[in-house]
Amino acid sequence: MLDDFFARALIAGSGVALVAGPLGCFIVWRRLAYFGDTLSHAALLGVAMAFLLEVNITLAVFVVSVFVSLALLLLQRRATLSSDALLGLLAHSALAVGLVALAFMTWVRVDLMGFLFGDILAVTRFDIAVIWLGGACVLSILAMIWRSLFAATVNVELAQAESMRPERSNIIFMLLMAAVIAISMKIVGVLLITALLIIPAAAARRFASGPEQMALLASIIGVIAVFGGLFGSLEWDTPAGPSIVVAALALFVVSVLPTPYLKLFKNTQTGEVQIDHSRGTGQ
What we know:
disordered C terminus
């Protein structure tokens, strides 16, 4: 019989994986891994603001992540720096400011390792409710903008010509990313959440014959990684958050192995999702 805390960890981790899968697919298709990394770094600044203002940590992380996303959009339009340079500037600046702010708050005892690498075994029933309700809202909104967001991923000009308002979809996508970062921080920590977004989606890409199938497979692979990582952590007494990411990495390695089964699977499929990077995005 599983202990109550371990069962809560499985439920919470599965909720995060289900939401991270579809969003991670867009990160892979659009080459936005550094954007997810920027938001995860900014989460530590949100933690500092939460302690300073005495507000809910999840809410503070969400607000700071939204602020960083909007700052990126504004700087992209007005600055002469490239997007990757702006992302690097925002990511490391937010992380450094957060660490310095926490250092000045000597009256607060902060489990920095817990925020950096997560503490999934300490999730409460309230955390589970936030994860699943928040995740349901994120997936519902993503389903509503899926067509326009994917069209913008394939070809921005075509999406604009068909009046799909790709800029609005991009802003909503950034807000959804901020929400997922906020609700996931306690699970795997700010330094590992990007891996949970990217690795399952990258592993699913080889098996998928379409974007919707890839999103579904990414969620399933993420859930498997959560179960594998947590049971591995229980068996070998390793940190739970990093163990989940290692399990996801193992699944990715398996997905790229040229086994006979994978070759047979490939022969029975019509193709896989491919992004035309020569145009920035595409299928």
